[in-house]
Amino acid sequence: MSETNTAAASEVAAPHRYTAVMAADIEARWQDFWDAEGTYEAPNPSGDLAGDPALVAKPKKFIMDMFPYPSGAGLHVGHPLGYIATDVFARFQRMTGHNVLHTLGFDAFGLPAEQHAVQTGEHPRITTEAAINNMKSQLRRLGLGHDKRRSFATIDPDYYKWTQWIFLQIFNSWYDDEAQKARPIAELVAQFESGERAVPGTRAWHELSTVERADLLSEYRLAYASDAPVNWCPGLGTVLANEEVTADGRSERGNYPVFKAKLRQWNMRITAYADRLLDDLDALDWPEAIKLQQRNWIGRSEGARVDFPVDGEAITVFTTRQDTLFGATYMVLAPEHPLVDKFVPAAWPEGTHDVWTGGHATPAEAVAAYRAQAASKSDVERQAEAKDKTGVFTGTYAVNPVSGERVPVFIADYVLMGYGTGAIMAVPAHDTRDFAFARAFELPMRCVVEPSDDRGTDPSTWDDAFASYDAKIVNSAGDDITLDGLGVVDAKARITEWLARKGIGEGTVNFRLRDWLFSRQRYWGEPFPIVYDEDGVAHPLPESMLPLELPEVEDYSPRTFDPDDANTSPETPLSRNEDWVAVTLDLGDGRGPRKYRRETNTMPNWAGSCWYELRYLDPHNDQKLVDPAIEQYWMGPREGQPTGGVDLYVGGAEHAVLHLLYARFWSKVLFDLGHISSAEPFHKLFNQGMIQAYVYRDSRGIAVPAAEVEERDGAYYYQGEKVSRLLGKMGKSLKNAVTPDEIAAEYGADTLRLYEMAMGPLDVSRPWDTRAVVGQFRLLQRLWRNVVDEATGALTVTGSEADEDTLRALHKAIDGVRQDLEGMRFNTAIAKVTELNNHLTKAGGAVPRSVAESLVLLIAPLAPHIAEELWRKLGHSSSVVHQDFPVADPAYAVDEAVTCVVQIKGKVKARLEVSPSISDEELEKVALGDEKVVAALAGAGIRKVIVRAPKLVNIVTA
């Protein structure tokens, strides 16, 4: 009989067998039921929590996935890994008595939809909404228990109204260093008006013009526009944040060259929060690797600010090794440093070394040429340890403030404006990069830290710099200060005090973190709620004018340029709609209707994901960002969570220093201004691993369809040609993507859920193997057979009591599964369910109803559709979703007896079956009285007995 005929005969003989067809029917019915009944809707407190005694008595759990971006390509089986995991965990929490908020929205602004619009002319909203609908359909098929009332997309105007509102809160705030918090900008203005805070310079606030006041306030605002060095990508026609530039100086999207340019852009003053962003990491339950990445990105370092006089000005440097100041023999400025233009003389000073000039006739020519060269490199490239050090002399000398010596001032690309002050004092004897630069440019070196080896104190004979924090300072004595003989720590303290006393420096703290570039030259993003008057002063729109919606434009693309042409500047799509840009508005400031021009940049795609956890709480509130009582209930501080936040946040580790850092910053500003009670957005973070797949490539290196590759004798062939195989990412372009729809159609969504959870620990990457999916399908079939007769569809369970072996298997499973689900060890939870199910299958006969019901409840978080179906077949009228999760009976959850090994002189002499609760004293008596032990001792004296109840006794003889 053929395989097809065998399958058909089997279907006739067992019409009620659990098959893919039956699974599809069950799953569709229960998904419809859950939607109709609002099964997953989590209630909010109404007003004062005291008025909701049921909620007060019930613990809450807010569980979130990282915002998905709806791709037009749809999902492959790797995408839902985290969504299934949070769904399992959320279901378990509901069954253990929690009010669970679990939902999913869509991060829908961004470059992919805009690029599609550029290529096709189709509005990005159309393609984005189509992608959202497709993704919703795919996720629904997985049976995810989301509260759909709370879902939204960042492109919804009633959502980005509040994104714009938050921007205005940040724009209208400043950071008070004394209070260590953000305050309304109006309070700063009041301080200037009253004279409580002095206006920089010699004039009073009332003497300043409107433009001067705006410029002054811009120095304080947490959101501000400035002319600053930015990452300009001509190939994309937009500027990029540092985090969007790859290590080799190219755009993360499109792989275009990125250049340094000076443009007027919006920034967020995230640096004001650097200390708090660092300190509050300690209160978060995050992976240490993510905390370390954030600490390194923020990059706090303690040192000193030092002023080097030059031509009536001063070059200020930040250094962490102020103890080596006597060893500074030259200075280096970033090519973009604003003082460079002031210093460059008309001609080279007498005695200038040829190697310093770069072959140019004048300092101005040399500086201009080198600046052009540096602009073609990214910050990452400039900081890399290049073999050849480049730079050029500015033609200017500064004065070392401790020694009085003249030191030449260079520009070099290894110094960045984005770190410290954009200037360094170079101590070549004790810094590897400075040493290499000094060798290349024949600059002097002075040893000021005594080497601990035998190299001596003449750096000209060294092969590299000597750097140490555990050495004595030498050659460091001036007219009124000496550091000689001091250790590094004491020398730092002495020189810092001296600098402060002289008024030429002070101890200070510096950060690697830079302010967040917040402008994009794109169409598909949130418009800034800012307009400019005829003087170029920025004015915020009143709240009544929000949301400011995107206008229609004929061309969605920013103007792009030759990717290699750095001498270009942005032209935005919004700037082409003059009717939208030029407006007459009454801003409610008492000046009546006036003419303004709108901001034509848009916010970056990160903006909408900086606060979305708050919108989940109160998604239909059109009067407030979020109701305070609701925010306090779901996210407020509580025992073990001193800064508040989401109870569990699951997503990829790739967002460590982008989304996570930005969201923390926005939360802290909103917290300072009193809008929310949670100073941190996410209390517990869990990074899931990745589902990988094999990529097969032909002799040309081109990926071939993985599904059509054949394995023969350990090799792989596509259409008869041998191909290579390598484990990597899954994706459409790699031709190895498997969609969840395919697996659900062949086996059912519950099988897919189980397989993804059973593949291994959630935080570890694992390879996809379609052939292995059937193992979880068979588990569900055996589970079905233990409850339902495949021939008649009738229940097979019995009302009799379970035997002791079954009770022990059941309660051990309950105890283990409960602990595993709580710890998000889903793979081992499935293994324990499988073990219990196999026990029932092997035992034969009808399964006791009590055991069958417990088994269904155990698997309900993992495979909710089949659990719901079996729960109803077992006679229950209420959903399995809100049933109590089984609790183990301790009397049955532990082993009835354990094996204790008895060793004499390290060799096993007996094995004893003892109670798991036996004491050390009792176990020693039992072991010494055992016949085999007595015989093995043969009267030898006992020097020591080591007992580790209940599993080990080690006897040491005399």
TrEMBL record:
<dbReference type="InterPro" id="IPR025709">
    <property type="entry name" value="Leu_tRNA-synth_edit"/>
</dbReference>
<dbReference type="InterPro" id="IPR013155">
    <property type="entry name" value="M/V/L/I-tRNA-synth_anticd-bd"/>
</dbReference>
<keyword id="KW-0436">Ligase</keyword>
<keyword id="KW-0067">ATP-binding</keyword>
<dbReference type="GO" id="GO:0005524">
    <property type="term" value="F:ATP binding"/>
</dbReference>
<dbReference type="GO" id="GO:0002161">
    <property type="term" value="F:aminoacyl-tRNA deacylase activity"/>
</dbReference>
<feature type="binding site">
    <location>
        <position position="732"/>
    </location>
    <ligand>
        <name>ATP</name>
    </ligand>
</feature>
<dbReference type="InterPro" id="IPR009080">
    <property type="entry name" value="tRNAsynth_Ia_anticodon-bd"/>
</dbReference>
<keyword id="KW-0963">Cytoplasm</keyword>
<dbReference type="GO" id="GO:0005829">
    <property type="term" value="C:cytosol"/>
</dbReference>
<keyword id="KW-0030">Aminoacyl-tRNA synthetase</keyword>
<dbReference type="InterPro" id="IPR015413">
    <property type="entry name" value="Methionyl/Leucyl_tRNA_Synth"/>
</dbReference>
<dbReference type="Pfam" id="PF13603">
    <property type="entry name" value="tRNA-synt_1_2"/>
</dbReference>
<comment type="similarity">
    <text>Belongs to the class-I aminoacyl-tRNA synthetase family.</text>
</comment>
<dbReference type="GO" id="GO:0004823">
    <property type="term" value="F:leucine-tRNA ligase activity"/>
</dbReference>
<feature type="region of interest" description="Disordered">
    <location>
        <begin position="555"/>
        <end position="575"/>
    </location>
</feature>
<protein>
    <recommendedName>
        <fullName>Leucine--tRNA ligase</fullName>
        <ecNumber>6.1.1.4</ecNumber>
    </recommendedName>
</protein>
<keyword id="KW-0547">Nucleotide-binding</keyword>
<dbReference type="Pfam" id="PF09334">
    <property type="entry name" value="tRNA-synt_1g"/>
</dbReference>
<dbReference type="InterPro" id="IPR009008">
    <property type="entry name" value="Val/Leu/Ile-tRNA-synth_edit"/>
</dbReference>
<keyword id="KW-0648">Protein biosynthesis</keyword>
<dbReference type="InterPro" id="IPR001412">
    <property type="entry name" value="aa-tRNA-synth_I_CS"/>
</dbReference>
<dbReference type="InterPro" id="IPR014729">
    <property type="entry name" value="Rossmann-like_a/b/a_fold"/>
</dbReference>
<feature type="compositionally biased region" description="Polar residues">
    <location>
        <begin position="566"/>
        <end position="575"/>
    </location>
</feature>
<dbReference type="Pfam" id="PF08264">
    <property type="entry name" value="Anticodon_1"/>
</dbReference>
<dbReference type="InterPro" id="IPR002302">
    <property type="entry name" value="Leu-tRNA-ligase"/>
</dbReference>
<feature type="domain" description="Methionyl/Valyl/Leucyl/Isoleucyl-tRNA synthetase anticodon-binding">
    <location>
        <begin position="805"/>
        <end position="919"/>
    </location>
</feature>
<feature type="domain" description="Leucyl-tRNA synthetase editing">
    <location>
        <begin position="295"/>
        <end position="499"/>
    </location>
</feature>
<feature type="short sequence motif" description="'KMSKS' region">
    <location>
        <begin position="729"/>
        <end position="733"/>
    </location>
</feature>
<feature type="domain" description="Methionyl/Leucyl tRNA synthetase">
    <location>
        <begin position="66"/>
        <end position="169"/>
    </location>
</feature>
<dbReference type="GO" id="GO:0006429">
    <property type="term" value="P:leucyl-tRNA aminoacylation"/>
</dbReference>
